[in-house]
Design a protein that fits this description.
By secondary structure, the protein is α+β, with helices and mostly antiparallel strands. Helices cover 23% and strands 22% of the residues. It has a domain at 24-64. It has one helix and two strands; from the N terminus they run H-E-E.
Length: 65
């Protein structure tokens, strides 16, 4: 806090497909904001992983470096 603005902070966003309260656009806006601040020359490449919890829900993970 004494040294001024920190660099880009890590961000993790969870959003369920059945979330009827929070619009998915909120997650997209957060991600776009952080990526623009961290990489003003363009969006970094993403690694997308799809999987499923054993006997559970499917998920998609998108990771930007």
């Amino acid at each position: 806090m004494k040294q001024g603005q920190p660099g880009p902070l890590p961000l993790i966003v969870f959003h369920g497909d059945r979330d009827a309260t929070v619009a998915p656009a909120n997650a997209v806006a957060l991600i776009d904001h952080v990526l623009a601040a961290a990489s003003p020359d363009g969006r970094p490449p993403a690694v997308v992983t799809r999987g499923q919890v054993p006997a559970g829900h499917a998920y998609t993970r998108t990771c930007y470096q």
